[in-house]
Design goal:
- The protein is built from seven helices and 16 strands.
- By secondary structure, it is of the alpha+beta class.
- The chain folds into two domains: 6-125, Aminotransferase class 4, branched-chain amino acid transferase, N-terminal domain (D-amino Acid Aminotransferase, Chain A, domain 1, 2-Layer Sandwich), CATH 3.30.470.10; 132-289, Alpha-Beta Barrel (D-amino Acid Aminotransferase, Chain A, domain 2), CATH 3.20.10.10.
- The strands form two sheets. Strands 8, 9, 10, 11, 12, 13, 14, 15 and 16 form a nine-stranded mixed sheet that branches. Strands 1, 2, 3, 4, 5, 6 and 7 form a seven-stranded antiparallel sheet that branches.
- Helix 2 (54-67) packs across helix 3 (76-89).
- The longest helix is centred in the N-terminal third of the chain and has 14 residues, at 54-67.
C-alpha cells in the first residue's frame, strides 16, 4: 500500500518549542547532525491516544544526549508535555512519535562547540512495522555480514543516528534477497539483535534465551517482555548465544517499540515455529500497552 512521503504530510510538528506547519519543519543542508551524525532520537508508540512508556523513552533520550555531549535545552517535563501536546494536536489515536535532537549549522567541521541544539517532535498515525500477514506466519531473516562494533568504540547504549548506518545496509541487503530483516552479530560473532529490535529464542523446555545487551541497546519493549514472561512463570536466560545454537531452538521472536512482538519463522537455514508461547506473550503485551486486563 502506497504511503504519503514524510515530507509531504500535513499538520503540525513541535519544533524548538513552537508548533510549526509540517512542511515548514525544515533544517539547513549544512547541519552537523546530517554530516557528522550528532543526533539522537526516540521512537514511541501511541495506543488509544496515549504514549506507552513515555517517561522511560524521554529518560533514554536525555541519557543518549548526555552520552553524545549534547546539553538539552529543555527539561524532561518539557519534552513529556510537548509529546502529549503533539499527539493531541495531530489527533493521533494509534500511531508513532519521533522526538529528535541534533546539532545545528553554526559550525561545520568535526568540532561543534558553538552549534545550537535543536529539538523536534513529530507524530503520525502508524500501523504495524512489519506486514501483518508476515507477522502471523513469522518473518524471515538472514545474518548480516556487518557486526555490531565493540563497546569501547561507540556509545552503544544510546539511540544515536550513527549507530543505525550498518542497520540500513544490512536490511537493504536482506530485502534484496527476499528476506524481511537481518540478524546482527556482535563484534565477537555472538548473536546480538535484528536491525531495529531485540531478539528472543524459545528452547524445547519452554525457556526463553536472549543475548546480553552489552554492545547494543537494551530495549524498553525487551524489558517489558521479560517482565511479562517471568509473571507467567517462564524462565528467561540472558546469555551469550552462538549462531550455531539456533539449531537447538524451536521458537524465535523480535521485540521493539515499532516491532512490538514479531515472530520469526526462519534465520538462514534455521526454522522456527510460531508457537503458543509467543502468541500468549504477544497477547499479554497488547493488553499491557492498551491498559486492558491481563490475559
Amino acid at each position: 500500500m502506497e504511503t504519503i512521503p514524510y515530507d509531504k504530510r500535513s499538520g503540525k510538528i513541535w519544533f524548538n518549542g513552537e508548533l510549526v506547519e509540517w512542511k515548514n519543519a525544515t533544517v539547513h543542508l549544512l547541519n552537523h547532525g546530517l554530516h557528522y551524525a550528532s543526533c539522537v532520537f526516540e521512537g514511541e508508540r501511541v495506543y488509544e491516544n496515549e504514549i506507552f512508556k513515555l517517561e522511560d523513552h524521554t529518560k533514554r533520550l536525555f541519557y543518549s544526549a548526555k552520552r553524545m555531549g549534547i546539553v538539552m535545552p529543555y527539561s524532561e517535563k518539557d519534552i513529556n508535555n510537548a509529546s502529549k501536546e503533539i499527539i493531541s494536536v495531530q489527533k493521533i489515536q494509534n500511531g508513532y512519535v519521533r522526538p529528535v535532537v541534533w546539532r545545528g549549522s553554526e559550525m561545520m567541521a568535526i568540532s561543534a562547540q558553538k552549534n545550537k541544539i535543536n529539538v523536534a517532535i513529530a507524530a503520525w498515525e502508524w500501523g504495524s512495522y512489519f506486514d501483518p500477514k508476515l507477522k502471523l506466519k513469522g518473518i524471515r531473516l538472514q545474518t548480516s555480514s556487518w557486526r555490531r562494533p565493540p563497546p569501547n568504540s561507540v556509545p552503544w547504549d544510546t539511540k544515536a543516528a550513527g549507530l543505525y548506518m550498518i542497520c540500513t545496509l544490512s536490511k537493504h541487503d536482506a530485502e534484496s534477497k527476499g528476506y524481511t530483516d537481518a540478524l546482527m552479530l556482535d563484534h565477537n560473532g555472538d548473536i546480538a539483535e535484528s536491525t531495529g529490535a531485540n531478539i528472543f529464542f524459545k528452547d524445547k523446555n519452554g525457556d526463553l534465551h536472549t543475548p546480553i545487551p552489552d554492545s547494543f541497546l537494551d530495549g524498553i519493549t525487551r524489558k517489558c517482555v521479560i517482565e511479562i514472561a517471568k509473571s507467567k512463570g517462564i524462565k528467561v536466560i540472558e546469555r551469550k548465544i552462538k549462531p550455531n545454537e539456533m539449531s537447538n531452538f524451536i521458537g524465535c521472536f523480535l521485540t521493539g517499540t515499532a516491532a512490538e512482538i514479531t515472530p520469526v519463522s526462519q534465520i538462514d537455514q534455521y526454522n522456527f515455529n510460531v508457537c503458543e508461547l509467543i502468541k500468549s506473550l504477544s497477547a499479554s503485551y497488547q493488553n499491557l500497552v492498551r491498559k486492558k486486563a491481563a490475559a
